[in-house]
Specification:
207 residues, mainly beta
Length: 207
């Protein structure tokens, strides 16, 4: 039997994803579609906002399309940010990286938009850390941009050119605003941990 209570989150929008760190109990992150990211604080039983530093010029980076918590180094956390893939958001997406559980961030701009408030935002986590080599991350992109990989802990990113299918599903192909007609793209990434060993990248990745 579960006993449910409300948990306060000081932000707007939906919470399409909650991500748990697999090696540290009680370490969890919540992502919202327009209201930033949060870390669970067990001692106070509350959610701590992590992206309040985002300024107006980058307002789209309060939309979080995916979060990845590093199971090998629980202090590391990553967020793929951007609110809309159409022209409602004038900026491109980015990957934010933190070495102190979201207390501070560094940012790498991407050459395409991400959509934390776009259709498909609740499909799964597009951003994933390799459990055997935590310098390796993958990001599934929308809008036909395919699969991207970082081998330096999120500092730089390049497209996986061998990846064959950037997706083709749109919620409403006839939507002229570009909102529901955008290709939702690659919506989740996960690893078969049995195909890797510590210090070597996992050989089998499911996308």
């Amino acid at each position: 039997t579960y006993t449910w209570r409300n948990a306060r989150i000081d932000g707007g929008g939906f919470v399409p994803g909650i991500v748990f760190n697999r090696s540290e109990p009680d370490l969890a992150y919540a992502r919202t579609d327009i209201g930033g990211a949060y870390r669970w604080q067990e001692s106070t039983r509350s959610w701590i906002p992590l992206l309040d530093s985002v300024g107006w010029d980058d307002w789209g980076h309060t939309g979080v399309v995916s979060i990845a918590s590093d199971s090998a180094d629980p202090d590391r956390v990553y967020a793929a940010v951007g609110t809309y893939t159409n022209d409602w958001d004038p900026g491109n997406g980015a990957v934010m990286r933190s070495a102190d559980r979201g207390a501070s961030w560094r940012k790498t701009a991407l050459p395409f938009k991400l959509g934390g408030n776009m259709p498909g935002r609740g499909m799964g986590e597009r951003l994933a850390v390799d459990p055997h080599d935590n310098d390796v991350l993958y990001l599934g992109a929308p809008s036909g941009h395919g699969l991207w990989r970082s081998t330096d802990a999120g500092v730089t990113w390049s497209q996986v050119t061998s990846f064959p299918n950037p997706g083709n599903y749109a919620q409403d192909p006839d939507d002229e605003s570009g909102y529901a007609s955008d290709n939702q793209g690659v919506v989740w990434v996960t690893f078969d941990e049995s195909t890797g060993t510590a210090g070597s990248p996992t050989r089998t990745v499911y996308v």
